[in-house]
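Hi, here's the filled form for the chain we discussed.

Project: internal
Contact: R.S.
Residues: 212
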Amino acid sequence: MRRAPSETASPPSPSRRQPNSKLGPADVVTLDAASEMDVDTRLDSPPAPALGTEGPRRISDAELETMASEIASSCACFHLRQAARVVTRAYDRALDGIDLKITQLTMLVAVAKSQGRLSLVELADRLGMDRSTFSRNLGPLERRALVTLSAEGRHRARTVELTAAGRQLLAQAAPRWRAAQAELDAQLGAEETTALLRQLRRLDAADLVAAR
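And the returned structure, exactly as it came back:
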């Protein structure tokens, strides 16, 4: 009897491999390239927004105008600083003839009142200044020989006193200061000026209490 011809197994499809078949070099390169493409795609894509979070809301022109108007009209610090600049210019004009600024006169007055009994740190605290600001303001007075600093001892902090030239300049500044003060009284009224000074002293005292 004739034997039936044996069936020849067809080669596996390129897209499907047997479970035990090994990958060749070309296959490894293809897989590596695909992995790199997948990683690059994930890196380039923007991160998904977190649940429940949104970007910053755009502030409209009307909202911006409302906020700015509220601060500009009712901020105590804004108006105090603006008023301080105006008042400072008025006092500086009065003292211009003796080459002195109102900030420097303030320093001379503080030094005169301390009479050498306060250390530099204590004097800076009385003026509401930090040490670096105090040193910057004191430096020009020292260079002009208007003040003199004591030597620093082992158990003694440095103090400052007016020199003879400093006393003379303070005496020259006093009538000019009075003229600027009279101008302010004329602008505000004597009672308003007194009330303003009372409120400013309250603010100063509150700051001193908070600093303790």
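Let me know if anything looks off before we file it.
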